[in-house]
Amino acid sequence: MAVITTSKIEISDFSFFYGTKRVIHNLNLRIEANEILSIIGPSNSGITTLLRSLNRLSDLNYDAHSEGEILLEGKNIHDPGYNVTELRRRVGMVFDVPTPLYMSIFDNVAYGAQIEGSKSRSAIADLVEESLRKAVLWDEVKDRLSTPGNALSGGQQQRLCIARVLALSPEVILLDRPCSGLDPISTAKIEESLEALKEQITIVLAPHNVQQASRISDRVAFLLMGDLIEVNTNHELFGNPKDPRTSDYVTGRFG
Asked: How far is it, in rounded angstroms, from Cα 100 to Cα 93?
C-alpha cells in the first residue's frame, strides 16, 4: 500500500536471503532526495546486495528472496504489477568495473534513447552532450565521439558508464565502489561529477574507502554483517560516532 513520505526511498524491516542464509537483517533506512548517502562497512556486510535490491537487480539471483518493504516515493517496488523496467530507469546502477558497450562513445550514451526511438537525431546529440557534461567527460571526448568506448582509460570508461545511466534521466543513481580501480585523478573527477549531480539526483554510494565517504557524503550508514549499526550526518558519524563498532571501523581498527 502506498504511503505518504518525504523520503525518496524508505526501507522498512528489510531482510534479504540467499537460500536460507540471511545477509541483511531487518534493515530500516530513509534515503532523502538530493543527498549523497554513503553506505560503508567491511566485506560481506550486504552493501552490494542492498544496492542491487533498490532497483531489483537482486531478482536475478534465482535462489534469493526478501522480506519487508522498499518504497520509492511511497510505492512498494515489490508490489505485484510494479514495472521493473521503469524502476531500473528511475533507479540506475553503476558497477565497480566499467562496462562500456562495444560501440562508439556517442552510441554508448545514446543507446537507451535510440532503443526508445522517441527522440530526433539532433535531440539525441544534445542528450549525449548533456550527459557527458554531467559526467565531467565532455571536454575530454568531444572531438572523438566515434572512438570505441572501450578505448578510453579506466577512469574515462567509468564516467562514460555514468553518462550512459544519466542519459535515461534517472531519479536515483546507485554506485557500487565506482572508483575501486582508479587513480586519484580519475577518482577526483568522478567525485566532482557526483557533487554536481546531487542537485538533481539522489545518490547512494558504496565508496571505495572511508576517506571517500568522508569527502563527499551528506550522510553515512554503517553496515556490519548485514546489520545497520548507525546512520548519521557525515560530520557526526566520523567525528562523534555513537556506537563503538562504528568508531573502530572508521578509525581502521578493523575492516
From this structure: 13
Per DSSP, the three-state class of 47 is helix
| First and final C-alpha spacing in the chain | 39
Q: 3-state SS of the chain: helix, strand, coil percent to 5?
A: 40, 25, 35
Query: b or e along 88-111 (b: 16 or more beta carbons within 10 Å of the residue's beta carbon)?
Result: bbbbbbbbbebebeeebbbbbbbe
Q: Which three cell numbers stand for residue 154?
A: 579506466
What are the grid coordinates assigned to 254, written together? Answer: 578493523
pLDDT tens for 186-222 read 899 999 999 999 999 999 999 989 999 999 999 999 9
Q: What is the mean pLDDT of each run of 10 residues along the chain (255 residues)?
A: 66 96 97 97 95 95 94 95 95 93 95 75 93 95 96 94 94 94 90 92 94 96 97 96 96 80
Residue 202 near residue 172, CB atoms below 8 Å: yes
